[in-house]
C-alpha cells in the first residue's frame, strides 16, 4: 500500500514554477497495478520519483508499505569502467541480496556472453539495456516503477522479457507511466489522472483512459 | 558483506521451467530465490546503510583511478613521488630545514598534514556530483556516498602517511620519539574540518556556481599559507599571526608537534582549532540537511 497524505509538490526549474500535486490525499491499494496518465509536463515522472522516494515532498507525507524498485531498466548507474558483472554486484550489495546469485541470474538473463566481463563502456546500447533489464528482474520488489516501458533486444529477448515481467506481476504491482493506452490496458487495472495539480484515482483503467482522453480534447 | 544470512531472506517457490506443450523452446532463466523482506527498524536501518557504504567503498576503489594502469596503487605512488621530488628540490638549496636535520621529514610532515585536510575535502566535495546517477536508487542516501569516500580516503591517507613517515625517518640521523596523541588529534581535526567544508560546499556549489569558481581561486594559495615548508612561528611578527589564524596551519603545527621537540611558542591554539573545526562541521551539516541538493535536478 502506498498512501499520500495532503501531499504538495511544486517543482522550480530556472525560475519556472509548476505545481505537480496540490494538497492531494490518495491511497493506492496493494494488489492492483496502476497506470499514470497526464499530459506532457503534468509531472508524471516527478510523481514516480516521489513514490520511489528519490524526491521529497514540499508538504504532507507519503507512507510506503512494501519494497519499491528504481525505474525499470534504469542504466544511468552503470559505471563505464566497471564490467557488467561488477555493476551487478554493486546493485546486489546496495539491495542486500546474494551477490553471486544475482550475478548468475543476470548472466543468464541478459545473454551478454563474454561481454559480461568487459567494461560497460564497450557495450552497445542494446547490451546495456539488456543488462539493466536483467538487474531489474533479478531483484523482487512489491512495486515496480516503469517510466515508459521500452522493448529491448531482438524478438526472442523481447518475448522473454515480457514473459518474465508478466510473471513478476503475479506477485508484484506495477506503477506505470505511459503514453500508450494499449500498454496501460495490458499491464494495469487501475489508473490515476494527473491534471492541474489534482490527482484522481480510478478503480478501472479504462475509465481513467477515457477521462484522460477527454482532458486532452479540451485543449 | 555480499552474503546475507538466510533468515533475513524469504524464499519464494521454485519456478518451473518446463513448457506446457512440451515444445523444445529455450527455458526461462530461473526466478531469483531471494526477496528483500525486512522492516526498517533502526538497527536494520544502520546495517542497510553500512552495507551501502561498503558497496560504495568497493566501487570507488575500482573506479577512482579509472583506466590508468596500476589502479589504486596511484593513491600511494602520487604523494610519495611528490614528496620525494619536493624534498629533493628544497634540499638542493643546501640549507638545513627549519626543524630537525632532514628536509624530507620536515617537508613530508607538513605536506601529509596539509593533505589530510585538502585531500579529504577535495575528494568529499565531489562525492555527490560524481555519484549523481546512483541517487536514482531509492535505497541510496546521499550521505552514504559521502561516508563511503570519507572511510576510503581516511584509510588510504593513513596508509600513505604511515609509509611515508617511516621512510622519511630513515633520512634523519636523529632519534625521533613520536607523540601519537598530537598526530592523531591533528588528523581528526583535519577530517572534521574537511567534512564540514565539503558538506557545506556541496550545497553552495550547487546553488551558486559562481561561488565555486571564486572558492577555487581563493583557496589556491592555501598550500603556501599553511606552513607546509616553513614554520609559521618563525615568520616575522604580524605575518606569523595571520598565518596562524588559518585553521589548516594549526593542523600542520599540531601534526609536527608529534615529531619535533620544540622550545618556545609554536603558535598552536587548541581552543581555536577545536572551535573552527567543529563550527565548520556544524554549519556544513546544517546546510546539507536543510537543502537536499543531492537529488535536485540540474
UniProtKB/TrEMBL annotation, chain A:
Gene3D superfamilies: P-loop containing nucleotide triphosphate hydrolases. SUPFAM superfamilies: P-loop containing nucleoside triphosphate hydrolases. GO terms for cellular component: membrane. Pfam families: ABC_tran (PF00005). Residues 2-219 form the ABC transporter domain. GO terms for molecular function: ABC-type transporter activity; ATP binding; ATP hydrolysis activity. Keywords: ATP-binding, Nucleotide-binding, Transport. Belongs to the ABC transporter superfamily. PANTHER family: TEICHOIC ACIDS EXPORT ATP-BINDING PROTEIN TAGH. This is ABC transporter ATP-binding protein.
